[in-house]
Amino acid sequence: MRAAEAFAKSKAEGRAALVGYLPAGFPTLADSIKAVEIMIDHGADIIELGLPYSDPVMDGPAIQRAADQALAQGFRTRQVFEVTEAVSGRVPILVMTYWNLVERYGVDRFARDFKAAGGAGLITPDLIPDEAQEWIAASDEHDLDRVFLVAPSSTEERIASTVEACRGFVYAQSVMGVTGARAATSAAAPELVRRTRAHTDLPIGVGLGVRSGDQAAEIASYGDAVIVGSAIVNCYLDADDIPAGHQRLADLTADLAEGVRR
Amino acid sequence: MPNPDPGGHWGEFGGRFVPEALIAALDELESAHASAMADPGFLAELDKLGREYGNLPSPLYLAERLSEEAGVEVWLKREDLNHTGAHKIRNVLGQALLTKRMGKTRIIAETGAGQHGVASATAAAYFGLECTVYMGEEDTRRQALNVARMRLLGAEVVPVTTGSRTLKDAMNEALREWVATVDGTHYLIGSVGGPHPFPMLVRDYCRGIGDEARAQFLERTGALPDVVAACVGGGSNAMGIFTAFLDDDVKLYGFEAGGDGYDTGRHAATITAGQIGVLHGARTFVLQNEDGQTIESHSISAGLDYPGVGPEHAHLAATGRAHYEPVDDAEAMAALEKLARTEGIICAIESAHGLAGALRLAKGLEPGARVLVNLSGRGDKDMGNVVEYYGYDGAFQEQGAQ
């Protein structure tokens, strides 16, 4: 399943899509599969699987801790394909990854194996289109979505060239800073979405900082997708045990799904 | 001097592997640096600062007693005599002056053992800039004196408690902070790594080492050295001295930290042992596992203890223009002791790696060959390590030398 199918559905329903992020292998490999199923059961339209990395420069404390935990438990890159295979078919599954992990696995090989597992595409936070020739070729070859980021600091020229390279949707990083749940979402987000929309018909997902149904509803009023990450990870970091984390995740996802439907 | 292509690549190395959010700041920095380098006023101010404040140019010194033992002429570029005790003052003065030029009021920096942190805090004090230094929590404990120096100079020191709590994690944290504060803050990176234009920019501010040494060498000997040697961690002092000699018939050698011994796997010999990958914004050689996760490096020298290396070094290695070899802890410490006893100079353990490598090379050179070593820093900061390494009983035996 590709991202476009999920956006067609949410658009037909007159609402924004809900995108849930979780690092593969967190809180455990088996429970990351369970967590994705919970998110899908409770209204997530697209899943982003994070690939745990030793040096996640764009992530705040919550996702750093989750990645550390997954790596300490022995997570291997290839296991992201197992998770993808286990959950694919119901909603599009994208992998969000720092570039070195893909490069090390082999860009074409990664694209081939991920496609075979049922994956939809990649979100690449530290790969700009300027450096992405190999990935653009591989994603064309294996027919995968490729989601690059735009930011409040992006110039018009860069927004134009970035959306040109995107397929599936565009990821609008709504605040200048690392990932992390915030009490208030960014005032820069609506402006960034407006600027981006002037350059593309692709759906625009808005990420960084969302933690509640109210915030999801606010972002859904101007964005095509609401992307939630750290708040999902926190369900497990804040819970006494994994079953309690699953329950928190079910409640949070339901709240967020209700938010995008207001 | 070959600059990288417009995207910041030397061959397949370098580039920009960073969040889009930083691209505008990198573009601004690149354009500010280019205009500064073309501005005689900026260059004159930097030169004056170097001379009157930084104690530049540093002397070129023929180490006669050491040369007698080595069988070749060993010439030392005395960067250890610079203000703050290392070549790093060149980089921080250049970048701090550039920070002012860009109208920014704050710098952030990463530091391992604290030398770049101290240099950054020094430049911040001189220019009246706010300064925050990110330092691995482990290092803040081991290098308490440098933490005190930075605080005395008015900098805020933030212990980094994430990941392996070392230099690479301090860099991660500085990059995270920079994304959030990029409007008014300059990231004063400490070596020739990171996304374009940092590797080029830091090289440009450090290249005075080689420009001076080349002119001094010609003046003193009427010729160029046969070999130029330097230690390589991130590689700023080595790029600083190599750059002037790239087009000459001069052999260039970079010596990486061999740690416990190259064969033990506990080292920081990134070019010798690493594979091509992406770390901290650039494609370069990286110590990484099969999956691309960064491996922790090991060295007695905190300044060389880094699992990546500047992309221009990666390119010089790949093209064969420069050669890179590991020097382990024992060999470096033996060179440090030998220099102290023959010349009365206590150099930094980092620099001792370059010297040790040069002494090893000397064995295969013609008698009387001329070897220029960048003595990139002084050893005061390392006395704790020296005492720990040799023990308190005073049994300072020469050991480990080949």
Automatic annotation (TrEMBL), chain A:
<dbReference type="InterPro" id="IPR013785">
    <property type="entry name" value="Aldolase_TIM"/>
</dbReference>
<dbReference type="InterPro" id="IPR011060">
    <property type="entry name" value="RibuloseP-bd_barrel"/>
</dbReference>
<feature type="active site" description="Proton acceptor">
    <location>
        <position position="59"/>
    </location>
</feature>
<dbReference type="GO" id="GO:0004834">
    <property type="term" value="F:tryptophan synthase activity"/>
</dbReference>
<keyword id="KW-0028">Amino-acid biosynthesis</keyword>
<keyword id="KW-0057">Aromatic amino acid biosynthesis</keyword>
<dbReference type="Pfam" id="PF00290">
    <property type="entry name" value="Trp_syntA"/>
</dbReference>
<comment type="function">
    <text>The alpha subunit is responsible for the aldol cleavage of indoleglycerol phosphate to indole and glyceraldehyde 3-phosphate.</text>
</comment>
<keyword id="KW-0822">Tryptophan biosynthesis</keyword>
<comment type="similarity">
    <text>Belongs to the TrpA family.</text>
</comment>
<comment type="pathway">
    <text>Amino-acid biosynthesis; L-tryptophan biosynthesis; L-tryptophan from chorismate: step 5/5.</text>
</comment>
<dbReference type="GO" id="GO:0005829">
    <property type="term" value="C:cytosol"/>
</dbReference>
<protein>
    <recommendedName>
        <fullName>Tryptophan synthase alpha chain</fullName>
        <ecNumber>4.2.1.20</ecNumber>
    </recommendedName>
</protein>
<dbReference type="InterPro" id="IPR018204">
    <property type="entry name" value="Trp_synthase_alpha_AS"/>
</dbReference>
<dbReference type="InterPro" id="IPR002028">
    <property type="entry name" value="Trp_synthase_suA"/>
</dbReference>
<comment type="subunit">
    <text>Tetramer of two alpha and two beta chains.</text>
</comment>
<keyword id="KW-0456">Lyase</keyword>
<feature type="active site" description="Proton acceptor">
    <location>
        <position position="48"/>
    </location>
</feature>
TrEMBL record, chain B:
<dbReference type="InterPro" id="IPR006654">
    <property type="entry name" value="Trp_synth_beta"/>
</dbReference>
<keyword id="KW-0822">Tryptophan biosynthesis</keyword>
<feature type="domain" description="Tryptophan synthase beta chain-like PALP">
    <location>
        <begin position="55"/>
        <end position="377"/>
    </location>
</feature>
<keyword id="KW-0028">Amino-acid biosynthesis</keyword>
<keyword id="KW-0057">Aromatic amino acid biosynthesis</keyword>
<comment type="subunit">
    <text>Tetramer of two alpha and two beta chains.</text>
</comment>
<feature type="modified residue" description="N6-(pyridoxal phosphate)lysine">
    <location>
        <position position="88"/>
    </location>
</feature>
<dbReference type="InterPro" id="IPR001926">
    <property type="entry name" value="TrpB-like_PALP"/>
</dbReference>
<dbReference type="InterPro" id="IPR023026">
    <property type="entry name" value="Trp_synth_beta/beta-like"/>
</dbReference>
<dbReference type="InterPro" id="IPR036052">
    <property type="entry name" value="TrpB-like_PALP_sf"/>
</dbReference>
<comment type="function">
    <text>The beta subunit is responsible for the synthesis of L-tryptophan from indole and L-serine.</text>
</comment>
<comment type="similarity">
    <text>Belongs to the TrpB family.</text>
</comment>
<dbReference type="GO" id="GO:0004834">
    <property type="term" value="F:tryptophan synthase activity"/>
</dbReference>
<dbReference type="GO" id="GO:0005737">
    <property type="term" value="C:cytoplasm"/>
</dbReference>
<comment type="pathway">
    <text>Amino-acid biosynthesis; L-tryptophan biosynthesis; L-tryptophan from chorismate: step 5/5.</text>
</comment>
<keyword id="KW-0663">Pyridoxal phosphate</keyword>
<protein>
    <recommendedName>
        <fullName>Tryptophan synthase beta chain</fullName>
        <ecNumber>4.2.1.20</ecNumber>
    </recommendedName>
</protein>
<dbReference type="Pfam" id="PF00291">
    <property type="entry name" value="PALP"/>
</dbReference>
<keyword id="KW-0456">Lyase</keyword>
